Amino acid sequence: MSTTIKAYGADDAKADLKQMNIERRPCGDDDVKIDITYCGVCHSDIHTVRNDWKNSQYPVVPGHEIIGRVLEIGKNVTKFKEGDLVGVGCMVDSCQECSSCKEDLEQFCEEGMVGTYNGKDKHLGGHTFGGYSTSVVVNKEFVLTIPENIDEKGAAPLLCAGITTWSPLRTWNVKKGDKVGVIGLGGLGHMGVKFANALGAHVVMITTSPDKAKDAKTLGAHEVLISKNGEDMKKHMNSFDFILNTIPVGHEMDPYIALLKRDATMVLVGAVEPLKPFHGGGLIVGRKRIAGSLIGGIKETQEMLDFCGEHNIVSDIELIDMKDINEAYGRVIDSDVKYRFVIDMASLKN
Amino acid sequence: MSTTIKAYGADDAKADLKQMNIERRPCGDDDVKIDITYCGVCHSDIHTVRNDWKNSQYPVVPGHEIIGRVLEIGKNVTKFKEGDLVGVGCMVDSCQECSSCKEDLEQFCEEGMVGTYNGKDKHLGGHTFGGYSTSVVVNKEFVLTIPENIDEKGAAPLLCAGITTWSPLRTWNVKKGDKVGVIGLGGLGHMGVKFANALGAHVVMITTSPDKAKDAKTLGAHEVLISKNGEDMKKHMNSFDFILNTIPVGHEMDPYIALLKRDATMVLVGAVEPLKPFHGGGLIVGRKRIAGSLIGGIKETQEMLDFCGEHNIVSDIELIDMKDINEAYGRVIDSDVKYRFVIDMASLKN
What we know:
With 350 residues, the first copy, chain A, is α/β, with parallel strands linked by helices. The first copy, chain A, is built from 13 helices and 15 strands. The first copy, chain A, folds into 2 domains: 10-160 and 316-349, Quinone Oxidoreductase, Chain A, domain 1 (Alpha-Beta Complex), CATH 3.90.180.10; 162-292, 3-Layer(aba) Sandwich (Rossmann fold).
């Protein structure tokens, strides 16, 4: 018996979507319909596709780093017009009325933000479908303006990896001259290095891998600290004003807490997992702080995008076709990407 | 064979001290010599006596909650006069020149603060001896004024338990109407409840022991939350503006992190130990924070004492004689004290 393996192409995708009955709502009065050009590949996509967090609803259409052009606007939409370059990040809705929403922190909406995919669809019922798609319809409040001067493909990861690292740097007021550590050089970490540098900080890339040193410096790190080198770690003790911790899995925290100055904070943005035990004394002696941070609000995301326009900052990416997604997922898991995969959505359309 | 057990008395203590060659320096130009009237018993005393932290230097004379009257002053001392009611807390010296000292945070002195006992004695060499003693000589900058209107015995624990709980409440700006949790009703916790109440907060005592409820309310708690009761814990989720965590040993943190509001902080003041692993997601979703806090600076300690004078706040204590110290230690370890032992130093003198 012989088996013929056929490449999965656009027609197959269309047939699958039809069969799965994945519906997009028509463009309502407050909506923007977007022709998706590029979509970034986030580690969360993989967690959701694989149901790692035990909350996936199938069929899953992942993707919350969406770039595209406005195709159609509803009658109440004044901020956008057909053809505008726009983006959509991790959220497509929230209550807009709770104290978090009123403080422009929709990611902490007390009724729960609506995720761009795997969220509760308020319009059609069921759940939301993300950006691995030809188009999407999104409420105008959750559509962002992408500066026309930056690279469209590289802008996609700003919508998740970008805001996830920008928001803590701003919330904890990182400023010119601060000594800022960025732990982990992946999709998040490489954006953290770029932003901290652009904000005028002295940036130290903290990594286990000496072979990442050169890249880190190209991205904007002023120093590289190899966390496995005890002597070097000792030299940097009690010296950091702020540490952005992008490690995506549970890990030891004591060695990093030791790096913080008195009253300084290490913010976790990656490890949605149980962390290893840390020593209370590490926080008590030095009044040190650990915190978490989750993406950022819509207003702050627009501020970040505008900043990227002014400073010409985008993500370093590898562009792939839709058919290569499974291979890309494997490489994300192996940390084998510099530094974010972005899907060329033309490959789904043609 | 029969053994005669003889009570350990003042004469024995004197003989022991003489034999151990425990020396106090003469009162120098910048010094205050204090006749000790009362000294509180802190859990740290026990850790040091028993060398739990592997840094004890023997002979140990513990005690850093010292109350007494000024016996003698050096020629540069203008703030105190003979007979003044004064106190000494956990520190008797620091460099006075580093950025922490200049910010009135001597507890974080970059050269290391000098502990009231088991610290490095800058004057005589060797190590410092604490307040389980008839007198002590201390640099004027580390001597505090005790308001004459408050109970002298009950004031002793303010010098450690008091400032340890006061400082985080002030650093994190606890104010009228805030919902404040105090975890653990011991020497620290009972002061936390009193202070948070006096600052106008809505105080919730969080404890494993339902039988502590009545006492907690007498001390100033408006509500008692039994942490073993999952349903009640659920009702208080995401509702606290601030949590003061006085648990003195490693413990689970997730259930308490869940109680915090967005952007709220839980401060550890007791657990100088490895904590149990917590889930990164608990901090990330809600941008929550964990921090540590260590006693407080001299200026802040004086502010706390003045506040206690204005609000007539002291610690609830059990007064003991010096000879009962070993029994008291046993009871501290068993959490069987309401809420702090204080030694009547007359029992050492007579």
